[in-house]
Design brief:
heterotrimer, A alpha/beta (481), B alpha/beta (250), C alpha/beta (245), A: 481 residues, alpha/beta, Rossmann fold, 2 domains, six-stranded parallel sheet, four-stranded mixed sheet, disordered N terminus, disordered C terminus, B: 250 residues, four-stranded parallel sheet, 8 strands, globular
Chain lengths: 481, 250, 245
């Protein structure tokens, strides 16, 4: 729990990080098994609802409308949270958010907190910030606990320890959990029971809980936490003080919108009709739950994304992770290769928008995709991820040699005359390479291709040369060989 | 119908047999095929790699070459997608109203080959003969962008002598992704390896598709591993007749 | 400028930019430099498309109470349907093996026969509970440790959702504060047939948003280890649903 946690600073660009992951057979096995399983389940859960596409379009419309009027809805949310007895704080960036939370914890007063999994708190590096202020934060989601005890980083939005199999988890518990039972096996039920015992004491004695929220309802001031294990309920119910850190894009207009989003989220994420526990509260309820409630609204780059007319659709995201589970690139590279708390397809478009496009990893993320579109197909809020990726690729600063290649090739490819000339050159080169019809080694910059594939040799005659010869110059041959 | 052929820069340069096959099939069906020589590239590679400005002159070249045709056919689902799905956005982005108008007229008439034959012309039997075991890989642009559905399969089922084998995990991307294959060679190769494994599982002699780009990538891996499985564009299978099959498969 | 002002200003600028260049999405109201026009926002909201189904199983054509029982059982909750007059006997039956576990089952707690019953739970449903079982109230409120040591909790509910097999507590009379149904290891909940709503839309329409709510769909679970679903993490490991009527 203490000690250095790895950070996302200075992460290598995606191709380099992915190279190592692709060669890691245990990771590959874990990912293929896990994502394959959940893909199939999700398809079944979605097929049950005849109106899935209509729900999806309604969700997209609600989110777009909310984002287009985000100021109005945040003000409404603030008003209603306060009316319910809570307090609202605003943070422009991670540093501000962390300072606010730390201050609230100290004022509680407390020097330890229990946390429900919250992506935004990972994004802002809250645990590290609290720790350097002498506050111990205990993650209570089983997977986050595994990641924390393993001094690791999460690799998936929903199942952050998906890159670990059961025996690796057992090892982590045996090493790092002082109260792990002797003879603990790698049976998932036993591992879950060990986590339950380990955390129960923390839960029952915690005075401050920190959560995120899946949704924040503007017209009622309600926060919604969707979970499976019950640790969320523990954190938002038992402590005297509750602090919820929520990205500004999580707001929804009204109570009835839950009928859309609670239909879409569980089926998209865990492939269930409904997840085990959902907690909804507004402000404080005397005699029931925390006596103090603080909502910390976080920007941290979201308003920058909002200003980008194509990129802002990423803010619709409800963090279901369906896109991760269908992505063939994620399946082979794993979450760590994305160098961000948000991996996978959504991560590739959100991380560069929140963090900017200048770091090696962020500038590589828009290219970490074949644009196959499987993610767009499954996204419950219809984010056109391929469109956003291509859009971001145009915003990345390309290096000089690539720019030159593309500029020159652009000149050739836009002109029929120049293209024909280049083709004649290619056909001439046949004399020297690929007489078998295959080229086994290409020079840089295309060398990467022939490392794992043969390349086709240029034909004796391009199509247009053939057409010119056989159709335009008097002799008319049939369109076969 | 008077049909304009957009052969695509890739097929024009490296796979001319595919272009010849498209002509053969459509002429066999009684249509007039023209190849406007002032065509070049649709600009997809540049556009998808983030060089959107460079794609604009290519879009202009395209609409100039193809205005006035009742239909434009192309043996590439990805190029057809570029024109149909992205040219309007590109024109709007650079504020070129003339281009936008031209795109508005031409783009809806651009069809990938199997969509043209099966859906627009409403035909499944094109008089083809191809006595081999074939499996079909649905490319991502065709599958998810153009939504050509099972048009290629309907056409393949009507080919005499053809033994159609199902491809396991067919809808998984082959890993080409344009410049992805070069920028992310490890993941690309890993995805290709799984596609090759699925193809071998189908026990097909030939794998076909609507895009030479994906076939070039898959075929490169099939030949590198000496698999003995060949790749062939769908058009070439549809063009194949009793007479032409004597020449053998590529 | 406070952080709040900054964020709101950035949002307004962002939406003005996006609106000007074209695609700010549906329901975009006039891009004002200052405070938003609430009426315009609400009008745009009301105009949003909602052509999804209100209920995936129409109550006119389906027995939604049976559907609820089926769907709840799918989560491995224990579901029992009894006619209303038999509820007291069913409750008594459900409690007694918990109060007298066989030695091979769960380790004994110190208040092995103590169940918490929140105020407002119909007392005539408890008439057949055996005398050696203690039914404790939550007044004065039990500590977390005390709750942890009980054998379980018995409550009613506010609404149930047939489509998803979900129980919704609004922590009103007969349901207790939230900790009551969280800490003990066993939760017996009585659902009346008239409390079953067909689907989410109807269920949420019946609730009062100012109250806290807990939606329960089966006992607690996790899929964090290799995506294998394991029941019984932090919430009650046994959920027993008595469907009355």
């Amino acid at each position: 729990m203490n000690g250095s946690m790895p950070t996302y600073l200075g992460m290598p660009a995606f191709p380099a990080a992915a190279k190592a992951a692709v060669a890691d057979s245990q990771l590959r096995r874990n990912l293929t098994h896990a994502t394959g399983t959940i893909r199939a389940k999700r398809a079944g859960a979605v097929a049950e609802l005849d109106d899935w596409e209509r729900l999806r379009q309604a969700a997209k419309a609600i989110k777009d409308h909310t984002l287009a009027n985000l100021d109005a809805y945040l003000l409404r949310l603030e008003e209603n949270v306060i009316k319910g007895g809570g307090q609202v704080h605003w943070a422009q960036d991670a540093a501000q958010a962390n300072a606010i939370v730390a201050g609230l914890v100290r004022a509680a007063p407390a020097d330890r907190v229990v946390k429900v999994k919250s992506m935004v708190t990972q994004e802002i590096g809250l645990n590290d910030a609290l720790e350097s202020g002498g506050i111990v934060a205990t993650e209570t989601d089983l997977a986050e606990l595994i990641v924390q005890l393993g001094h690791d980083l999460p690799s998936h939005i929903l199942v952050p320890a998906i890159h670990k199999n059961r025996s690796e988890i057992r090892e982590i518990f045996r090493r790092e959990m002082p109260d792990a039972p002797a003879g603990l096996t790698d049976d998932p039920a036993e591992l879950a029971a060990a986590a339950r015992r380990h955390l129960r004491h923390e839960f029952l004695h915690a005075s401050v809980g920190i959560s995120g929220a899946n949704f924040a309802i503007a017209d009622t001031g309600s926060l919604v936490v969707v979970e499976s294990e019950g640790n969320g309920r523990m954190c938002v119910t038992l402590p005297r003080t509750l602090i919820s850190v929520v990205g500004v894009e999580k707001v929804l207009p009204s109570w009835r919108d839950l009928e859309v989003f609670l239909a879409l989220l569980p089926r998209s994420s865990t492939a269930e009709r409904m997840n085990p526990y959902t907690s909804i509260w507004s402000g404080v309820t005397p005699g029931d739950g925390p006596e103090q409630f603080h909502l910390v609204l976080v920007d941290n780059g979201r308003t920058a994304s909002l200003a980008d007319q194509t990129g802002r659709q990423a803010l619709r995201c409800i963090r279901c992770s369906a896109c991760l589970n269908v992505c063939p690139v994620y399946e082979r590279a794993g979450g760590h290769a994305y160098g961000s708390p948000y991996p996978g397809p959504i991560g590739a478009i959100i991380s560069p928008q929140l963090r900017g496009l200048s770091s090696p990893v962020d500038s590589s993320l828009p290219f970490a995709s074949t644009l196959c579109g499987a993610c767009y197909e499954v996204c419950p809020v219809a984010i056109n991820i391929p469109e956003a990726l291509v859009h971001l690729r145009a915003k990345v600063k390309h290096n000089f040699s690539e720019r030159t290649v593309f500029h020159l090739s652009g000149q050739v490819l836009e002109s029929p005359r120049r293209l024909a000339a280049a083709q004649r050159l290619a056909s001439l080169s046949r004399r020297f390479v690929g007489r078998s019809g295959r080229i086994r080694r290409l020079p840089p910059p295309l060398r990467g291709w022939t490392e794992t594939r043969d390349a086709p040799a240029p034909p004796a005659e391009s199509f247009r040369a053939w057409w010119q010869r056989t159709r335009e110059s008097g002799t008319r041959e049939r369109g076969t060989r | 119908m008077r049909i304009g052929l957009f052969v695509t820069c890739l097929t024009d340069t490296l796979f001319p047999e595919t272009g010849k096959a498209v002509v053969a099939v459509l002429e066999r069906l009684g249509h007039q095929v023209e190849f406007p020589a002032d065509q070049a590239c649709c600009g997809q590679m540049h556009f998808n790699t983030g060089y959107r400005r460079e794609a604009v002159p290519m879009a202009r070249t395209f609409v100039r070459a193809f205005s006035g045709y009742e239909a434009v056919v192309t043996p590439s689902a990805s190029c057809a997608s570029m024109v149909r799905e992205y040219y309007p956005a590109l024109a709007a982005e650079v504020g070129d109203e003339g281009l936008a108008r031209a795109v508005g007229e031409v783009a809806p008439r651009v069809f990938e080959l199997s969509a043209l034959v099966a859906d627009v012309l409403g035909l499944t039997d094109v008089g083809a003969y191809f006595p081999h075991r074939v499996t079909y890989h649905p490319t991502c642009h065709g599958l998810r962008m153009l939504l050509i559905g099972d048009a290629p399969l309907r056409l393949l089922r009507a080919v005499r002598g053809l033994d159609l084998a199902a491809l396991p995990d067919a809808e998984s991307c082959c890993g080409f992704g344009g410049t992805f294959a070069v920028k992310n060679p490890d993941v690309s190769a890993a995805m290709c390896a799984d596609k090759v494994a699925a193809i071998r599982q189908s026990r097909a002699e030939v794998v076909c598709a609507t895009d030479n780009s994906c076939l070039m990538h898959i075929g490169g891996a099939l030949s590198r591993s000496r698999s003995g499985v060949a790749t062939l564009h769908l058009a070439e299978i549809l063009a194949s007749t009793e007479a032409s099959t004597e020449a053998g498969v590529r | 400028m406070t952080a709040r002002d900054e964020i709101l200003a950035r949002i307004r600028t962002a939406n003005r930019t996006a609106n000007r260049t074209g695609a700010a999405g549906t329901g975009q109201t006039a891009a004002a430099a200052g405070a938003p026009d609430a009426a315009a926002v609400d009008a745009a909201y009301q105009a949003l498309p909602r052509d999804y189904l209100r209920a995936h199983h129409d109550p006119a054509e389906h027995d939604i109470v049976a559907l609820f029982a089926d769907r709840a059982a799918d989560y491995r909750a224990v579901v029992e349907r009894v006619p209303a007059p038999e509820v007291p006997a069913a409750i008594a039956c459900a409690l007694s093996p918990r109060a007298h576990p066989s030695p091979s089952t769960s380790p004994p707690t110190s208040d092995i026969s103590r169940f918490v019953v929140p105020r407002g739970f119909p007392s005539d449903w408890l008439t057949e509970v055996s005398a050696d079982i203690e039914l404790a109230s939550d007044e004065p409120p039990l500590s977390a440790a005390e709750l942890d040591a009980t054998a379980g909790v018995i409550t009613g509910c506010a609404v149930a959702i047939a489509e998803t097999g979900t129980i919704i507590l609004d922590h009103g009379p007969g349901q207790g504060r939230r900790a009551l149904t969280l800490v003990p290891d066993f939760h017996l909940v009585v659902v009346r047939a008239d409390q079953v709503a067909a689907d989410l839309a109807d269920a949420f329409a019946r609730l009062d948003p100012s109250r806290p709510h807990t939606l329960i769909s089966g006992p607690s679970a996790t899929s964090d280890i290799e995506l294998i679903r394991v029941e019984g993490v932090h919430g009650p490991r046994t959920l027993h649903i008595l469907l009355a009527g």
